[in-house]
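For practice. Any example?
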Amino acid sequence: MPSAKNFYDVLGVSKNASDKDIKSAFRKLAQKYHPDRGGDEAKFKEISEAYDTLSNPEKRKEYDMMLQFGGIPGAGGGYGYAGGAGGPSMADIFGSMFRGEGVSGAYGADPTTFDFGDMFGGGRARARKGSDLKATIDVTFDEALRGAKRNVTHRIPSTGETDSIEVTIPAGCYDGMKVRFKNHGEYGVNGGPRGNMLIEFRVAEHPVFKRRGKTGDVALDVPISMYEAALGCTVDVPTPAGKTLRLKVPAGTQSGKSFRFKEMGMPDAKRPGHTGALLASVTVQVPTSLTDKERAALEKLVEADERQYRSRL
């Protein structure tokens, strides 16, 4: 009986080929035979089946064991056998495996039961969806505020071809936000569907405004002097959209006091049509050095101050 091709023959590699060699061989063949590029669909399924088995360490181990026993599973549409006269038939070997007897009766090894999965099926492996691919896009604060569009070109690992996607950056986009594009990932195996392309946004920080989680709320610090905190003041506060708000700070305001301006933050990407709030937090600044005049005035104020600031201690 003439010997049938095995999966190593299909990919054109030796039985000792490394994972890198197997992957490289598959890529070259996939580029040549992929149906979407005008190639031979039957040939592409054949090399895909071979790669699916040899690229998986467990499947490859089982496959090599079958070759050692004389079987040639998967290639040529069936299972060949190259055993000598008087040896067990492949049906005997398969039957003992299915009964849980292993292969000890035929080869004198310890009883072992093997699960060859898709390799038992007349050489037809299951259709499998392609793996998802990932990419990251750097987004400016202004792009995240107003929204933008970006063309993203990525490479398909199995074939080396490039794929382009027009990505819409939604207004209110936040750091770590992901969008999914169906059928732009890796090609499926044995007629399976393509995987997806996952785009993650990495939003740059703003020197003034800080996002509050994934919502449209935005915070900023408003520094005021201790004199302004004691007497009260009015401060012009910027907004992410470039407007200016007038913040009235009451007399006696403490450091950390926050003032909320509704719908003056950023769009909420999770709730289209909604805009978050602007949270202005006052930070009271204490002078690190004083003039002689300032020190003398403050000392008089301290002498006249009869309040108990540490009564709880």
